[in-house]
Specification:
Number of strands: 10
Radius of gyration: 19 Å
Structural class: alpha/beta
């Protein structure tokens, strides 16, 4: 469904952030994108969704294809119309609007009113708390409620592909488990493909079909999620655990060798 072919991203015509990134998201699959702060994960999502242009960035080399169509030169609104929706880190909302009004904003590209109403109930089925809060002003929601709302708003667009950026950030362990369970249900029940950016490697790899690891703007490792879960380098890099179970500093953990570029 989604294919990134050796892309490079540059900001302000000066700052090179992504350096030959290639990855695939197959139809109906959940793919995790892992990496530390500054690895280039969020920039990768923005390259796909078209939001780079808002921040004076651009895909300067390579290509991005979705359903066989090149999209790296498209504006964000056109990318959304193709069925790609990004759920941004930080959970931005129209804070003066109610919960239900925010959900309706997610369906602004749709003209099928009866189906939109039906999907509103679908969102409330995934997020029962939002139904009780539907008349509440969204600016007063808690972090967990905001995460539910931004995901629900994305669902209202009926996406083929959802780009999730750090959904667990700042949430309690109990809420994180709940949110991740809903993400998996959406992937399974709605057949929505998901590209998940997440620093919680353990949870991300437990639910993903495939995973990629980024470092310094490059993909340095990838493979089926179950193999990455058992990889000693992944355990060491993300959990700070050596082979004998001793906790280590991130600075002591080796950097991965650069993965070979894929041929476009």
């Amino acid at each position: 469904m989604l294919k990134l072919n050796n892309i490079e991203v540059i900001y302000l015509n000066v700052i090179l952030v992504l350096k030959g990134v290639s990855l695939d998201v197959p139809d109906g699959k959940l793919v995790s994108l892992l990496g530390g702060n500054g690895a280039g994960k969020t920039t990768t999502l923005k390259a796909i969704s078209g939001l780079l242009y808002v921040e004076e960035g651009e895909v300067s080399d390579g290509s991005i294809e979705f359903d066989g169509r090149r999209i790296d030169r498209m504006h964000p609104e056109d990318v959304v119309r193709l069925g790609i929706v990004q759920v941004m880190e930080g959970r931005p909302l129209f804070e003066h609007l109610s919960v239900e009004e925010n959900l309706k904003v997610g369906a602004y590209i749709r003209s099928d009113a009866p189906a939109v109403s039906k999907d509103m109930y679908l969102v409330y089925d995934y997020f029962p708390k939002l139904k009780h809060l539907r008349h509440a002003t969204s600016g007063y929601l808690s972090g967990g409620e905001r995460q539910m709302l931004v995901m629900g708003r994305a669902l209202m667009a009926r996406p083929k592909l959802m780009l999730l950026d750090e959904p667990s950030l700042g949430l309690s362990p109990m809420l994180v488990k709940e949110i991740f369970g809903i993400v998996k249900r959406i992937n399974t029940n709605e057949k929505t493909s998901i590209l998940l950016v997440e620093q919680n490697a353990k949870l991300a790899l437990e639910m993903a079909d495939y995973g990629y690891v980024m470092e310094n703007g490059r993909v340095v490792m990838d493979g089926p999620a179950e193999k990455l879960r058992d990889n000693e380098d992944i355990k060491e890099f993300y959990l700070g655990l050596s082979k004998v179970g001793q906790r280590r500093s991130y600075r002591e953990v080796k950097h991965y060798k650069r993965r070979k570029r894929w041929l476009a």
